[in-house]
Amino acid sequence: MAGKEELVQRLSAAILDCDADRAASEAQQILDAGLDPVEVLNTTMAQTAAEVGDRFESGQYYLPHLVLAGNAIEAASEVLQKGVPAGKLPEKKVVVIGTVQGDMHSLGKNIVATMLRANGFEVHDLGVDVKSAAFIQRAQEVKADLIGVSCLMTTTLPYQREVMEDLVAQGLRDQFKVMVGGGPVTEEWANQIGADGYGRDVLEAIVVAKRLAGIEG
């Protein structure tokens, strides 16, 4: 029977090969072998997610690899979490994410959502053409820690500001951290509208989300 080191290495390899089915199977073998799923989630899974990000940043992975590897991480995590005793699994930080009203672009937002899930967030993806009221309503419903507001067109940038203004007007600004991103978005714009964070790309978005949520690493 394979030892602990071989089992976790096989799980990591399956993820880095972007194979969700194999990753889930390897995760099940880890449970069957009696390894601690919490330890595997906190070490092997976290380290492998970081490696995926490094490979994307270095140009070894492209966007399709990032999405598929993220799916593999999700698949393995779901299996491992089933083996965690009740109360032992850390509470997930909750993100509501979507593309603003009038904007139908979803690729960047979808990739960020996938990688947030792969990094342990509970993600509520509202899709595209999302009105400010919908962001705020869902954030209240799910008790979100973060609201992620994406925008891919210059003409729809004002709707990011609208979300911020509506939160202030409703007295809810202090309840949620808000991060913005997308093609025309800049750090200067984020500061101008009072957002808490800005992600220039997928990897930066994950780093910023973790910082805003108080997650280390």
Describe the structure.
With 217 residues, this protein is α/β, with parallel strands linked by helices. It contains 9 helices and 5 strands; from the N terminus they run ααααβαβαβαβαβα. A 5-stranded parallel sheet has the order 2-1-3-4-5, with helices on both faces. Strand 1, helix 5 (107-118) and strand 2 form a beta-alpha-beta unit. Helix 2 (20-32) runs parallel beside helix 4. The longest helix is centred in the first third of the chain and has 22 residues, at 37-58. The protein is elongated, with a radius of gyration of 18 Å. The model has no long low-confidence stretch (mean pLDDT 92).
List keywords for this structure.
217 residues; alpha/beta; five-stranded parallel beta sheet; 11% strand
